[in-house]
Every structure is written in C-alpha cells, then in structure tokens.
Amino acid sequence: MRTGRRSRLSRILGAMPTMGPQSKPAAPGANATLHDTLAAADAAVRGNAAVGGVASSVNTDFLDKLSFVDDRLVATLDLGAGGSFDQILERFELYLNAKAGTERVQRGLGYNNLLFMAAELLLLQSHPDQVPFLLIEEPEAHLHPQHQTLFMEVLAARAAKPDSEKGETHQQVQVLLTTHSPQLAAGAELETMTIIVGHRAFPLGAAHTRLEADDYEFLRRFLDATKANLFFARALIVVEGDGERLLLPTIAEKLGRPLSRYGVSLVNVGHRGLFRYSRILQRKTGNAIPVPVALIPDRDIPPAEAKDLVGDRKTENELTQDEVVARLKTLRRDVGDPVDVFIADSWTLEFDLALRPQLAESVHQAVQLAKTSSRKPERLAKIVTKASETYAGWKEAGLSTTEIAVKIYQPVHDKEASKAEVAEQLAAILRKRTDTPEQMRDRLPPYLVRAIYYLTGGYVPGAPAIVPEPEVGDEEIGGAGMEGAAAVEA
C-alpha cells in the first residue's frame, strides 16, 4: 500500500485507537511515542554531515544571496517530522517481504490485493464497539485457485462468531462479497449465497429453495469447484457420468448449438444426488430463476433382447406396468421451476445411441476402439475396419436394431470398455462426420435433442410445449415417449 496524500493506509492507521497517543510526546518516564521517534530521527538526519553539507550549501551559495538584509532566508533539510501527524502517517508504506528476511520484492496484483484486504480487516477488528461490515467486489482477481480457497477460509473464520472455548477473541465481521469464481462459490456456505440473474436477486437459504436440510448437508460435502460453475450458468445440464460429460458437448455442436456459445454449464455429479443439485435452482415461492436446468438420467430398464447379458436382472418385458411407471415417476419427481428431466428412451446413453440405425456403426467403432490400449494408427484403422465389417454382417444376418444394439453395448456392460473412453472415441468420430445439424437432429435419440434445444432456447417440431404428467393407467411399457419435453411450471 503506497505512500501519498490521503492514502488509504494513512487513513487506516489514523483510525486505529492505538495511534491516537502516538501523535504527542510521551509522558516523562514512558516509552517513546511515534512523535518522539520521528523527532529523534529528524535530529539525527540534520546532524548527518552529508545532509548538513547540502543544507549549508543551499543557504550559503544561494539563499544568502537571495535574502533581504532584514529578512534572511534559511533552509533546513530533514525528514519533515515537524508536520502534522496525518502527514507523518501519509509517509508510511505497507509492503510484502521476500520469502525470507525483510528484502523488498515486487509482488503481483493478487498478493497486493490480499495485503490491502488484510489492512481493511485490521481496521474493522480494531473497533469492537461498532458493527463491522466489509464489502468486497470480486476478490478472485489475480489470485490463483489455491489462494482463493485459502482466502475464503480466512474470511469465513472472521465472519463466524468467536468461540470462547477455543480462546478466540476476534471481532465478528459481516461480509458481502460478489464473485464470478466457482472456486470462491464452492468455499461459501450455500445458505448464505444469493444468485443474481437478470438484475434480480435469488437467495439460496432454506426459506427460499426446495432443498431439504439433508440436501444442504450433502452439498456442503460434495459441492466443489468443478460443480460450482452451476451458479454462473445461463443454462445447466446435470448428468450422472463421464460418458454424458464427454459426449454431450460434441452432440450439441453437431446440432449447431455449441454449449459454450449458449453459456451452458455441464455438471457431472456421478451417481450422487442428481436431484439435489437441481433443487438449488428451484424456488418454494415467487418467480422461478430463469436458468433452464436439464437432468439427463439413464432409464436403466434393459430390453428383453438383453436378458442373456443382464442375467437375473429384470428386463422390460418382465416388469409390470406399475413398476415401469414407478421408475419413470421417480426420475421425474423434481420436474418444474425451471428443471426438466430428459430420460434415456430405452436403457443408457450408450445403448440408446447404438439403437439409432444411422449412428450404430459409429458407436460400435467407438466401443471397439475403447477396448484397446494401442494408439498406433495402423492398429486403430484395422479395428475400425473390422468393426464396420462386423456391423455389416449383423445387418446381413437379419438381426433387429435392438439385437444389434445389445451386441454393440455388451463390452460396455461387461466393463471391457469404459464409458468415458467410449464417449471420447465416439465424440472424435462424430466430429469427423459430415452430418448437417438437421440430419443429426433426426439421427440422434429424441430425448437428447429435446434436452439440447430446451437448454438453448430451441423448439423441436412436433413436440408439445408442455407434456402433462401421465396417469398410471395411461402408461405403456416401451418407454420411448415416456419422459417430458419441457419443464412443467411449478
């Protein structure tokens, strides 16, 4: 913090209660005050031979010749400690030392910002009889992520009530902080946060969101910086695995709606709390937060043709109508305001893609590529050729699209190929394909198209604006049309 007239540091120092007595000489027998120390320094400076010589030269060589007989001009050269105490404080400078010792080094803006905020916190805690209130605008500027985390920990400690049992005596500070940093947002208590969308404030406390008490506890443990970008999104996709995380951006790009251009964030929550994250943006009362949220879960109901693959697990033909309906209703339980659920039409993302006739061969190639650790171009080319030949043989043998999809999906189901690797390979294959957005829209599973269009403001021809919640008696086992196309208003 720099020196200068009316510098912020001088005002902070001047407001410190301990600085008041330092502006006057010490009482007899007491320790020297700042006034005494600077006065002594002034005297020592004036007694310095070099300084005294400069002052003498100015007086003898110039001022004597410029003076009237009855009005001699005499100059003194010192530190200026005889000025006002404010002027003395304006000469102070606060800076960061090197890692060892007191050597002065040039620090970046991030470190200097930390120093500035430390000085402001010092001022606040020095007045225990007042109500300290600290406003900070985007403190993440010039701070690397690890320091942002550390900063939030320190700030949270200062904002908490002091624990007398731990010997804490700090002044509790009320803090209002604005940020665009997922790192800082992940370090804040969710209940204390407010989202600003379209110049409107939406508090995230328990009185406002649809989160339950155990949801807040869950999110306190698992809402990290990789997921906290949901607070800054224009639209949000919440998925259950790496397959969707790696593949959906490419699918959106092939549809002519790249997620980055539409400000869409993608959050992978694994299999933990898909609906807990979406409830952050759902309101108990009042207006909805205008940030569309798409949940994309698997349907997880294997087709009859997969019986040999899944063993004792029930396939769709072995489930009752009520069991299928109950499964789908569970997946759709949090639809509305502004969350919608786009459920896989049949089983999983990978299987549903393999069901699409004009994508199945590409999916099979991706699965076979994911099974190998080789990265030699010749070996990979042979795998792709072999996959195409195998796929053509299945078609010539008269296998149905579902039977072919089961064969394609088998290595994924049996853990011979990871979903993440399959998604990575398939994304690369799709990027090389020459499908137009219109063609890709017709070739993809409908639920994925609806999800992308819902997030990016598009409209799928033929899809209703609102899909009503189906009655149990009206459900059909077969699933392709059993998930909603758009959010139902809460």
Automatic annotation (TrEMBL):
Annotated region (Disordered), positions in chain: 1-30
Q: Report the residue ranges that make up the Endonuclease GajA/Old nuclease/RecF-like AAA domain in this protein.
A: 98-185
Gene3D superfamilies on file: P-loop containing nucleotide triphosphate hydrolases (3.40.50.300)
Q: What positions does the domain OLD protein-like TOPRIM occupy? A: 231-300
A GO term for molecular function = endonuclease activity
Pfam families, alphabetized: AAA_15 (PF13175), OLD-like_TOPRIM (PF20469)
**What InterPro entries would the database entry show?**
AAA_GajA/Old/RecF-like (IPR041685), Bact_Antivir_Def_Nuclease (IPR051396), P-loop_NTPase (IPR027417), TOPRIM_OLD (IPR034139)
> Keyword annotations for this protein?
Endonuclease, Hydrolase, Nuclease
Cross-referenced SUPFAM superfamilies: P-loop containing nucleoside triphosphate hydrolases (SSF52540)
Supply the name of the protein: Putative ATP-dependent endonuclease of the OLD family
Annotated organism of origin: Paracoccus tibetensis
